[in-house]
Amino acid sequence: MWLEKYQKLSSIDRDKFGELANELLNKNFILAYHYDNKNRVRRPNSNYNFIVRNFEIFENYFKMTHYKLERDDNYHVISLSNELGYNHQKMDKYTTLFLLTLRLMYDEAKEQAATSEVVYTTTSQIIYKMIDLKLIDKKPTIKSTVDVLRFMVSHNIITKIDKSLDDFSANLVILPTILFVISNEKINAIFQIMFKRDENGNDIEA
Asked: What is the signed CA dihedral for 116, 73, 28, 9, rounded to 10 degrees?
C-alpha cells in the first residue's frame, strides 16, 4: 500500500514530499532538468528524481482529491491536472495568444533540431512572431507582457536565463511543458475562437 510506503519515509523525506506536493499544485509541472544556464547546459533536478522514486505515493495521494499525476519519459515532464476541471487558470486573450505563439515556435524549432528538448528565444522574438502571425497588430505594453511572462515562469512553461522580464532582449527558454498546455486540438480551437469569419470570409476577432 502506498500509505505504508509513505509512513516508511524518513521525517526529512516526508517534509520533502509535502513541499513537492504543494509545488505541483502551484506550478502543475516539474521537469527533470533546469535550463537556466547561460551556457545552455542542463542541470539535473533532484526534485524530479525524488518524485520519480516515490511516484506511487504521490500518484495515490493526489488521486484521493481527483488530481491526476502523469509522467512523460519522452520529454521528462511530470504534470498534475484536476480530473473534475477545478483549479484551472482563466487566461485573457493576450495570454492565450502568447501561449499559442510559444507552441508554434517550439514546433518550428523542433523540426530543425529534433533532439533538443527546449527552445531558446527572447521576448522580442516572441512578440515579433505574434505580429508576423497577425495574432496582434502592434507591440504590446511592457506591463502586459511582463505579467504574462511571470505567469509562464511561475508555471514552468518558460524559464529566464538572464536580464529582467521587463527587458525585451532577455533570453528565455521555452520548455517542453508547452506541449501539455497547448495540445494540437487546442491550437485549432484557439484559431477558431479567436479568429471567426463573417459571411464574406473576413476575419472577426473574438
From this structure: -130
What pLDDT tens digit does each residue of the chain (206 aa) get? 899 999 999 999 999 999 999 999 999 999 999 998 788 889 999 999 999 999 999 999 999 999 999 999 999 999 999 988 766 677 888 999 999 999 999 999 988 887 789 999 999 999 999 999 888 989 999 999 999 999 999 999 999 998 899 999 999 999 999 999 988 777 777 767 666 644 444 544 54
Residue ranges in the chain assigned as alpha helix (H): 2-7, 11-27, 46-53, 55-63, 93-112, 123-132, 142-154, 178-181, 184-194
| Element housing 158 (H / E) | strand 158-160
Alpha-carbon distance 95 to 122, whole Å?
16
B/e letters for 129-143, b = 16+ CB within 10 Å, e = fewer, are bbeeeebeeeebeee
**pTM of model > 0.90:** no
Selection from 163, 162, 104, 158 nearest residue 130 by Cα: 104
Secondary structure (3-state) at 106: helix
